[in-house]
Amino acid sequence: MKNAQQIEEALAELSALLGASGYLGGYDERKRHSRDTSTARSCLPIAVLRPGNTEEVAGIMRVCQRIGMPVVPQGGLTGLSGGAVPTEGSVALSLERMNGVIEVDAENASLTAWAGTPLETVQEAARCAGFEYPVDIGARGSATIGGTIATNAGGIRVVRHGMTRQHLLGLEAVLPDASVIRNLRPMLKDNAGFDLKHMFVGSEGCLGVITRAVLRLSPAPHDRYTVLLGMPGYEAAIACLASARRHFQAELTAFEGMWPAYWSLACRMVAASRPPLGTGHGIYILMETSSRDRGWLEEWLEDCLEAGVVSDGVLADSLSAARTMWSVREAIGDVDREIGAHLNFDIGLAPSQLGEFAEACEKALGDLVTRDILHLGHIADGNLHVIVPVPAGDEVTGTEVERRLFDLLAERGGSVAAEHGIGTLKRPWIDRTRSADEISLMRVLKAAMDPKGILNPGKVIP
């Protein structure tokens, strides 16, 4: 058990290791690293550690391992499940100084970057080299590569390109005992024993600190077309998705759904003049293709209108028009602030079940909420975001909302976390998704790799 003198000596050792730019002990700096974007309660770390390289990360883990000091890895602090919030008596290990693209390898279609590099920086480096890094989320400007790997981020183009896991060729990670797992080779095929890099994908910083990554790049699309569709209801949306998959096949890159309550609120916030599509539809779909032929898309849209699957549609005729359409979908962060206190759910189900699930939520939660429940998400991926207004500080109502919603989800065999992770906020509900044997195996893996339990304690595993 560590005592005050041990902590003081360890902090002095960490300060000497990292220097003035790497060790921050002031209140303002600690406050900035006391929470992520979620509704989880903030907690001041006893210090903020900002290593500049892998060796310094290993040095941090060596010191903290010796006295059992908790370490909470942090990326861009954009998480929505409390996974980067410090725990009592912990240090925050921020990767913000380990930032930058190390190499773009055009011959191998790969890119190597430090874990603290913002996603948008990686996307731009890939674009400049004639490629694309297709993982894309609204927080691209601040979310880091290490964070997207640690949560297996998805985003808007999963239907075509898959989750982050599909784009990871290699990584480097520091384990709790300060040893370093290093495989930074740009290889698609490597079956020499266990594929260790996948242990860290979606692990939320509980098994190791990701420091560098080799990412797989995709060919840049020739053209990208965006179309906004109004439909009578969710059944029409599923029929439209099936048609789009048959028609565009691999060129279908996004198929996003927005229910009317979300659509109306978001349009009022981001489209000051007039919405890009009229109101009164049962659901709004934002679809993107990488087709080379605009006429092909126009013909498909006309067929959908004639068949009555689509009630109205607008094809973006410029990049600015497409950005306006996407701004409504990506307003979710601003919508969160607009409606005040709320619970933000990120559930996974088969795409055919999302419409019925949204209706079931409205019925099950109707006596608990007095404002509109907002639904939107990645329909083609079976990922629905549900925003439920709950009065600030009303933990009793909040817990009951969670119980009812996650019970509905368990009945349908869904996941309590499609892309936002478990963190602390969804940890009490992981048994709605994972069996007792699965949770037991997670505990075994955690205990084997982190026997003192110092790395991101209290996250993911109940």
TrEMBL record:
<dbReference type="InterPro" id="IPR004113">
    <property type="entry name" value="FAD-bd_oxidored_4_C"/>
</dbReference>
<dbReference type="Pfam" id="PF02913">
    <property type="entry name" value="FAD-oxidase_C"/>
</dbReference>
<dbReference type="InterPro" id="IPR016166">
    <property type="entry name" value="FAD-bd_PCMH"/>
</dbReference>
<dbReference type="Pfam" id="PF01565">
    <property type="entry name" value="FAD_binding_4"/>
</dbReference>
<dbReference type="InterPro" id="IPR016169">
    <property type="entry name" value="FAD-bd_PCMH_sub2"/>
</dbReference>
<keyword id="KW-0560">Oxidoreductase</keyword>
<dbReference type="InterPro" id="IPR016164">
    <property type="entry name" value="FAD-linked_Oxase-like_C"/>
</dbReference>
<dbReference type="InterPro" id="IPR051264">
    <property type="entry name" value="FAD-oxidored/transferase_4"/>
</dbReference>
<dbReference type="InterPro" id="IPR006094">
    <property type="entry name" value="Oxid_FAD_bind_N"/>
</dbReference>
<feature type="domain" description="FAD-binding PCMH-type">
    <location>
        <begin position="41"/>
        <end position="220"/>
    </location>
</feature>
<dbReference type="InterPro" id="IPR016171">
    <property type="entry name" value="Vanillyl_alc_oxidase_C-sub2"/>
</dbReference>
<keyword id="KW-0274">FAD</keyword>
<protein>
    <submittedName>
        <fullName>FAD-binding oxidoreductase</fullName>
    </submittedName>
</protein>
<dbReference type="InterPro" id="IPR036318">
    <property type="entry name" value="FAD-bd_PCMH-like_sf"/>
</dbReference>
<keyword id="KW-0285">Flavoprotein</keyword>
<comment type="similarity">
    <text>Belongs to the FAD-binding oxidoreductase/transferase type 4 family.</text>
</comment>
